Amino acid sequence: MNTPNTQTSTANHAIVPRDQWLAERKTLLAQEKELTRLRDQVARERRALPWVQIEKNYVFDTPQGKRSLAELFEGRRQLMVQHFMFGPGWEQGCPSCSYMADHTAGMQVHLEHRDVTFVAVSRATLPEIERFRRRMGWQFAWVSSNGSDFNYDFHVSFRPQDRVDGTVNYNYGMVEFPAEEAPGISLFYKDGEGRVFHTYSTYGRGVEVMMGTYNMLDLTPKGRDETDGFYKMDWVRHHDRYESQAVFTPAPEVDACCSTKA
Hints:
By secondary structure, the chain is of the alpha+beta class. It contains six helices and ten strands; from the N terminus they run αββββααβαβαββββα. Strand 2 and strand 3 form a beta hairpin.
């Protein structure tokens, strides 16, 4: 979820005639087109991945009562899960996961019209989730996996016994991760017989697909304008915790939600 600070400085930036700018822009355009074609190819290969049938009966606490994983589809064939970092007893959810969730309002109706149901899942209890949801004003479905193995089986929550020499199984390998919760996105498919299959999961920087703001910032002269520190997203706040002026001020202390090594 982090990016190296390799942005070109805006101080003393090169100023050139329009024809030179156009020539260099066309060179960059060729690279952008190559990236677009590669992204399309990766998407095709992602859809071609084999699936794994879900055998375990995961049960979640929802505002409508206990629901199984299959019931979270709400009549659609595809389910997108945001693994939202929010553990039991936490005062609030992870700022970076909240940054991700802030982008769901506009896209949810479009996902639903492409046969996709979106839901966030956290280990926090349902009352804790509902309290934080009300504060943030979110309307998407958000359920609690508290008491189930769901988060552990999808390697986004870690018990003390899951750590081996300070590392945990995250993003398909053993890595150092500072928290007991981690971000991710998982996809599931339900067939006509009601069988549920795990089709894909992405972690680490893979979750940037939900961060539309990052895509827009990447177009700007200053880019993401992040630091070279361990936790590059220290500028992100819960949307109700930014200062009134739109000026970046580092937080005095920020829990590292996302590791640069993940």
